[in-house]
Amino acid sequence: MEPIAHIHTDLPTKFGVPRQCGLVEALKGRIVFTPKFREPEALRGLEDFTHIWLIWQFSRAVRDEWSPTVRPPRLGGNIRMGVFATRSPFRPNFLGLSCVRLEKVELSGSEGPELFVSGVDLMDGTPIFDIKPYVPYSDSHPEARGGFTTRLADRTLRVDFPEACRRPFTGEQQEAIAGILARDPRPHYHTDPERVYGMPFAGYDVRFRVRDGVAEVREVVKLALQEK
């Protein structure tokens, strides 16, 4: 297989990426096709769908070996589960699957055809291997069981995001940051209320801490440009 496209998002590192797609609808992405697949005809009819499936690679997690069991972060990182019963990035083929909202199909973008999506859970630059339309009559299963995930409380935090810290970002970016923090991006076993975390986002380091159920943004610092 070879990548057909890459996605561009405001999250350059794994820290802060939502644990599942659709959790932070305000988090946007732009899908740019590789030169070989910059063919507008390949997208004919896609604009009639509201959601699409992305098949992609955990490119920062590729290893020579794999393990039949992993430690899901949502279980505190202390309990092992079968890799095929989880969505861990450490898989035999390191493939991910995400359902995202298709906001717009742009056939004549600056880099050829582009797709604009929301509700993403992918890092900036993630390679995409395939795109398929989401079909509600067959892809939606409201009666489905969620395994060990149904036993976990979907706890959210209140977010304290001061106006002074919001200024570098657009309204959508502010909403995305608040959505990420509300879902608590820290590892589940981190509980120190005084520890300050840094989350790279759109060229800035968003520094925050969590205590008493509140994610407090302490400051926002411009990141130094890094050579690629």
Give the strand order of the largest sheet, numbering strands 1, 2, ... along the chain.
Answer: 1-2-7-6-3-8
Please report the number of helical segments: 3
Gyration radius, rounded: 18 Å
Question: How is the CATH topology of the largest domain named?
Answer: Elongation Factor Tu (Ef-tu), domain 3
> Which architecture of the largest domain per CATH?
Beta Barrel
Determine the oligomeric state from the structure.
single chain
The total of beta strands comes to 12
Which CATH C-level class of the largest domain is it?
Answer: Mainly Beta
Secondary-structure-derived class: mainly beta
* Average predicted confidence as pLDDT: 92
N-C termini distance: 25 Å
Global outline: globular
Q: Strand share of the residues?
A: 25-35%
Order of helices and strands: EEEEEEEEHEHHEEE
The main sheet comes to: 6 strands, antiparallel, barrel
Give the CATH superfamily of the largest domain: YaeB-like
| Total individual domains | 2
The percent range for helix content is under 10%
* Uncertain parts: none
